């Protein structure tokens, strides 16, 4: 009899426990951590204190990194916003998702982070001042996202995002997007004058009155100010823009702490791409090339409850963010994603790819191979802007461990490794071209095109 009573009591407690965990009518997503993605456009990691920069551009980001996981070698899959961010959202490479224009429309059959989180019960909010990208998001995800709010002033972004977050009744995904360090680098005071520049003397730099975008050895008209032709001045402006964005990020992080959301949330800070500040003859731009100054990005991941920081040296990428979020919220991975979960770490010697039109980069461990088109056509005229002496080499090959600035081409010195990388790239390109996803384009008006031109893009 006592055994029966004991067994009955055991079943009773088991049922109560199940009820408390599951609950009557328990909503999908309950008990999952919030996810907060912070993005600063065109942000180079080597201009942040936590990545070793000498100027104090990022005290709030540095504080986040001290209690988070910092990925020392993270790469974007594109050299500008649309292809890069859609690789983040789909965990696919550009030839697969095919999003290559501001007015591109994503194939509804393609996997994407927004739809996946919606299915798992998350509220979805996007706040920031990247107005062109936000217009594209509205076209592609207007029926999925709960809020897409364009806020002209960066100083008002944190307040609006925090108000939305604290009023959610279920787990939320919050994307806070700062145009930040994107050119033309014109921040308000005191950030505009925060870092006095030291004139570097006569340099082979000229201002361009014709080219808005910028190219080989000249300062683009878009950013030129007051007749100044010293690149050090514009680098100081770039750093001031980072400091301004960092201050706004500090407000956001402080607000999360005050509302009890900071420790309970997965917080990821990254960028869509970097920025060339004179390396490889390209000044103040982020298209045309796939060198490290363009495709290397910061990646800082703070897991819920994480109290101690650590550094990961294995290569990571923006395509890893989608699977990492799925892993963190306890959901199964989606077949066919190119990225991997970074919850534990990053695989060694993995293959990563970046794309700009018909230029492709393959990174594996310390090795990096860049392939250029064999011949020019109507879609390759941009190469003439960057490479005055084109045609040149089809391949460039670098050891990023000994030569992170990619100054010395090793294609004629590392024969076996170089040939292996070429074969690997060719095999993967063939597989990527077989993607079944399709992309269309929505009708863009003159106002939308003018917004694109205002950031130095031509469309």
Can you tell me about this structure?
With 459 residues, this protein is of the alpha/beta class. The protein has a single domain (32-348, 443-454), classed as 3-Layer(aba) Sandwich (Alkaline Phosphatase, subunit A). 31% of the residues lie in helices and 18% in strands. It has 13 helices and 21 strands. It has helices spanning 2-22, 59-66, 81-90, 94-97, 113-119, 131-141, 157-166, 231-258, 292-295, 321-328, 382-386, 415-433, 446-454; strands spanning 34-40, 69-71, 74-75, 104-105, 123-128, 147-150, 172-178, 206-207, 218-219, 265-270, 276-277, 283-285, 296-297, 299-302, 310-312, 316-317, 351-356, 359-364, 367-371, 395-399, 440-441. An eight-stranded mixed sheet has the order 6-5-7-1-10-14-2-15, sandwiched between helices. The protein has a four-stranded antiparallel sheet with strand order 17-18-19-20, with helices on one face. A hairpin with a 2-residue loop joins β17 and β18. α2 crosses α8 and α7 packs parallel to α8 (231-258). The model is unreliable at 1-27 (pLDDT under 50).
Write the layout of secondary structure elements.
Elements: H1 2-22, E1 34-40, H2 59-66, E2 69-71, E3 74-75, H3 81-90, H4 94-97, E4 104-105, H5 113-119, E5 123-128, H6 131-141, E6 147-150, H7 157-166, E7 172-178, E8 206-207, E9 218-219, H8 231-258, E10 265-270, E11 276-277, E12 283-285, H9 292-295, E13 296-297, E14 299-302, E15 310-312, E16 316-317, H10 321-328, E17 351-356, E18 359-364, E19 367-371, H11 382-386, E20 395-399, H12 415-433, E21 440-441, H13 446-454
Helix pairs in contact: 2-8, 7-8
């Amino acid at each position: 009899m006592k055994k029966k009573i004991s067994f009955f009591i055991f079943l009773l407690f088991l049922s109560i426990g199940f009820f408390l965990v599951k609950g009557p009518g328990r909503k999908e997503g309950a008990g999952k951590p919030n996810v907060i993605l912070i993005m600063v456009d065109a942000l180079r990691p080597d201009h942040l204190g936590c990545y070793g920069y000498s100027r104090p551009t990022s005290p709030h980001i540095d504080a986040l990194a001290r209690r988070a996981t910092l990925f020392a070698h993270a790469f974007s899959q594109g050299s500008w916003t649309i292809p890069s961010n859609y690789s983040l959202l789909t965990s696919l490479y550009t030839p697969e998702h095919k999003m290559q224009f501001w007015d591109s429309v994503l194939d509804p059959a393609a996997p994407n982070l927004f739809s996946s989180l919606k299915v798992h019960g998350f509220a979805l909010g996007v706040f920031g001042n990247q107005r062109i990208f936000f217009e594209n998001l509205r076209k592609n995800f207007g029926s999925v996202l709960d809020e897409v709010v364009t806020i002209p002033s960066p100083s008002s972004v944190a307040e609006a995002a925090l108000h939305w977050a604290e009023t959610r009744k279920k787990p939320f995904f919050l994307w806070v997007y700062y145009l930040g360090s994107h050119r033309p680098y014109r921040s308000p005071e005191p950030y505009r004058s925060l870092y006095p520049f030291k004139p570097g003397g006569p340099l082979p730099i000229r201002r361009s009155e014709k080219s808005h975008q910028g190219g080989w050895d000249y300062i683009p008209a878009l950013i030129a100010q007051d007749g100044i032709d010293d690149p050090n001045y514009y680098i100081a402006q770039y750093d001031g823009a980072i400091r301004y964005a960092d201050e706004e990020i500090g407000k956001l992080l402080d607000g999360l702490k005050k509302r009890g959301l900071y420790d309970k949330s997965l917080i990821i800070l990254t960028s869509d791409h970097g920025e060339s500040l004179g390396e490889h003859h390209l000044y103040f731009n982020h298209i045309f090339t796939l060198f490290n100054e363009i495709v290397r990005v910061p990646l800082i991941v703070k897991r819920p409850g994480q109290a101690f920081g650590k550094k990961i040296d294995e290569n990571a990428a923006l395509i890893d963010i989608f699977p990492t979020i799925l892993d963190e919220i306890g959901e199964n991975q989606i077949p066919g994603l190119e990225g991997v979960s970074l919850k534990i770490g990053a695989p060694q010697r993995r293959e990563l790819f970046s794309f700009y039109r018909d230029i492709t980069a393959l990174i594996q461990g310390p090795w990096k191979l860049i392939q250029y088109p064999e011949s020019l056509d109507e879609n390759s005229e941009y190469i003439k802007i960057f490479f005055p002496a084109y045609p040149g080499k089809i391949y460039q090959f670098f050891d990023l461990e000994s030569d992170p600035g990619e100054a010395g081409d090793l294609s004629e010195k590392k024969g076996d490794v170089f040939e292996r990388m070429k074969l690997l790239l060719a095999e993967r390109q063939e597989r990527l071209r077989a993607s079944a996803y399709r992309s269309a384009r929505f009708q863009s008006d003159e106002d939308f095109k003018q917004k694109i031109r205002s950031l130095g893009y031509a469309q």
